[in-house]
Amino acid sequence: MYPPQLSSPERRSRRFAWVRKVHTLGPQGTNCEKAARFWVDRLSLDAPIVLHRSIEQAATEVAVCETEVMLGVVAYPDLHSVMYTHVRTMRLLDLFIMNTDEMVMAIPPDRDTEPLICVTHPAPQALLPERIQRRFVASTALAAQECACGKAEGCITTLAAANRYGLRVLHRYGPVPMGFTIHGPAARDTLSPTATCCRAHL
């Protein structure tokens, strides 16, 4: 048969061949970084991952570049605000589901008891028992950093980040199936015909 029929990943790879960088939430060890690497590898793209202190910062970078995209996560409470802020310049181009890294409650290695206050990103805060107070930070990896530096009694973070910063894992919650989104320049609106049809009826 000619032309050859392409599988779904092959079609997506062709649609996103223009991508030169992927911006997302850092620092190293976030689920967003893991998802960005998964997306790049799945499509065989030659695109480095750029990590930012916030999704908002990543979006600001992508909004002024026609060859770069941002990876977001549906659990981020303010993702809708990011999308509406850049509604004239950016579009939702792709989305996929991937298991997060294992989520854990971690404490400094010299601590033995459950923390009274934990640092956490807003998204996974429901993993904490109500008896534990919350202090919010920009990412799960940053939560691990602060815990390792003695700025917090405990944190909700990923297993990868806990291991990176030498934390002691107190509770393990397992991985979570999560939706991740790819946003890019409006001129690169490459949603499939099926997705475009569905969007037209929203």
Structure, described:
By secondary structure, the protein is of the alpha/beta class. It has 2 domains: 8-99 and 177-187, Periplasmic binding protein-like II (D-Maltodextrin-Binding Protein, domain 2), CATH 3.40.190.10; 103-174, Periplasmic binding protein-like II (D-Maltodextrin-Binding Protein, domain 2, 3-Layer(aba) Sandwich). Helix content is 29%, strand content 29%. It is built from 7 helices and 10 strands. The chain has helices at residues 8-15, 31-42, 55-62, 79-85, 140-148, 159-164, 193-200; strands at residues 21-25, 49-52, 68-73, 90-99, 103-107, 117-120, 133-136, 154-158, 168-174, 177-185. A 5-stranded mixed β-sheet has the order 2-1-3-10-4, sandwiched between helices. Strands 7-6-8-5-9 form a 5-stranded mixed β-sheet. Helix 2 links the parallel strand 1 (21-25) and strand 2 (49-52). The protein is elongated.
CATH superfamily of the largest domain: Periplasmic binding protein-like II
Question: What CATH architecture of the largest domain would you give?
Answer: 3-Layer(aba) Sandwich
Poorly predicted regions: 1-7
Helical segment count:
7
Total count of strands: 10
Sheet having the most strands: 5 strands, mixed
- The largest beta-sheet arranges its strands as 2-1-3-10-4
User: What's the structural domain tally?
Assistant: 2
Overall pLDDT score: 90
Radius of gyration (CA) equals 19 Å
Helix/strand/pairing class, anyone? alpha/beta
